[in-house]
Design brief:
The chain has about 240 residues and is mainly alpha-helical. It is built from 13 helices and no strands. The radius of gyration is 20 Å and the shape is globular.
Length: about 240
């Protein structure tokens, strides 16, 4: 595929996901205004931070008048998953220049990662070193970024005029469920998801959304622990064969 074809394929792959992220962006815009942020601050956060869940957390903590350090630490931990996304995609983009890597890193959100890693996995990391699949990721990421800005602006403009009875916030859960299920390919991933879900539900009542922070930490810990156990289990038979 040519660069243009890869770029358009990335856009096409991202379009169905916009059905969930667009209401999410509108809800963020509304929530940010209700939390006391100015329109410029709310829109600026979407343009620069570009991470829906952490933007929600930051807006809610701002509304609760949390300490600046609490806001920074909480959003940092919430966004730690992006480091995992980057580590997953890194083998496929080693051949790119730094400007390309910086651009793709900025655009690498949950939704962009979900479609991009599927596209990359159609070939081995070594094979994709000489291909142009990064154009696919660029198309997917830019599509999401542009739509996120538009939906945020619409939400900011609507402000408090949207009634809570519409229940638009439920689209957030549906979007992340749709993104999560295809990635649960092994036991460590399933264990991490279950642990994080259980902790998030049990700790939902904690102040300052600390339940979300705790769920992220527990999920990462359980996932890493399960992966280490799986590695030890696979290594044991190999050692036994070597002894023979």
């Amino acid at each position: 595929m040519t660069n243009r074809q890869q770029f358009l394929a990335g856009i096409k792959a991202q379009l169905p996901i916009l059905l969930g992220t667009t209401p999410f962006g509108m809800i963020y815009g509304i929530a940010a205004i209700k939390a006391g942020l100015t329109p410029v601050q709310a829109i600026g956060m979407s343009m620069i931070v570009f991470a829906g869940s952490s933007q929600f957390v930051a807006a809610q903590l701002f509304h609760a008048q949390a300490l600046g350090m609490v806001i920074v630490l909480t959003t940092f931990v919430v966004n730690l998953r992006h480091m995992l996304y980057s580590a997953s995609i890194a083998p496929y983009v080693r051949h790119l220049t730094r400007p390309w890597k910086y651009a793709l890193a900025f655009l690498l959100t949950d939704e962009a990662y979900a479609v991009s890693i599927t596209n990359y996995r159609t070939a081995s990391p070594e094979a994709t070193q000489t291909t142009n699949k990064h154009w696919f990721t660029l198309g997917a990421g830019l599509t999401l970024w542009v739509s996120w800005q538009i939906s945020t602006i619409v939400g900011v403009a609507l402000g408090a005029s949207v009634p809570a009875s519409w229940g638009l916030d439920f689209t957030l859960a549906l979007t992340f469920i749709a993104l999560l299920i295809p990635t649960l390919e092994d036991a460590p991933a399933i264990a991490a998801a279950l642990a994080a879900g259980i902790v998030a539900t049990a700790a939902n009542g904690l102040p300052y959304n600390l339940g979300l922070l705790l769920a992220v930490l527990v999920g990462i810990g359980v996932g890493l622990g399960a992966e280490r156990l799986a590695g030890q289990s696979s290594a044991a038979p190999a050692l036994a064969e070597g002894d023979d």
